[in-house]
Design a protein that fits this description.
five-stranded mixed β-sheet; 4 helices
Length: 215
């Protein structure tokens, strides 16, 4: 393999550190073992999910109408994207890769830290720093996070939290200590996965907000 060949470097999912060399005109990514050049055997991934092709202006990444999307640097693709050295590619919610240009040094990109929080409300799954949060959050913690994730950056009052977290029959007499306890434990769970990033912020006298969310 020629050293000047561009490649995709797996950061998370599949085999971290694996190098997929772009030595052909096109690389088809998806779940179809017969047709795809890079197979990701995960139900989140479409059979034909994304395509990396070499064109006159460089390597182009396209989403092929996948169900769960293709993301570059945290933003979902809405059209073809001309890949730049260091771009982070995410296939659905299960695999992250870095595009390494021909003249780049792969180990440097591998050492970059991934951060951010993403939720899939339909499946009630949470990813922190690129990895799914396991074990799952408690029901109260999940309800609080779902509330904050609905509009990251917005400050939600304690009354908002009570209505979202506790069933209607149990809302009477909920103390501030109980609210703080749920927020504290949620903050601790997220810190276990990503200790260097702040997610749950207490706004003294007002409530709580979520930072560093990927929406």
């Amino acid at each position: 393999m020629l050293p000047e060949t561009a490649m995709l470097l797996v950061l998370e999912g599949l085999e971290p550190g694996k190098r997929v060399f772009l030595d052909k005109a096109a690389l088809l990514i998806g779940r179809d073992e017969k047709k795809c050049n890079l197979v990701i055997a995960d139900r989140q991934v479409s059979r034909h999910h994304a395509l990396v092709s070499l064109e006159d202006n460089g390597y182009i990444l396209k989403d092929l109408g996948s169900k769960n999307g293709t993301f570059v640097n945290g933003k979902e693709l809405e059209g073809p994207h001309a890949l730049q050295d260091g771009d982070e590619i995410q296939i659905a919610y299960c695999c992250k890769m870095a595009f390494v240009g021909a003249d780049a040094t792969a180990p440097v990109i591998l050492e970059e830290r991934v951060s951010g929080l993403r939720m899939d409300v339909e499946s009630k799954r949470v990813w922190v720093a690129g990895k799914e949060l396991e074990p799952a959050l408690s029901l109260a913690q999940y309800r609080l996070l779902e509330l904050l994730y609905d509009e990251p950056g917005r400050v939600y009052s304690r009354d908002d939290v009570v209505q979202a977290v506790w069933p209607e029959d149990d809302r009477d007499g909920i103390s501030e200590q109980a609210i703080d306890a749920v927020a504290r434990r949620l903050r601790e769970r997220l810190a276990e996965a990503d200790p260097d990033t702040q997610y749950i912020v207490t706004v003294r006298g007002h409530g709580f907000r979520l930072e560093n969310a990927i929406t």
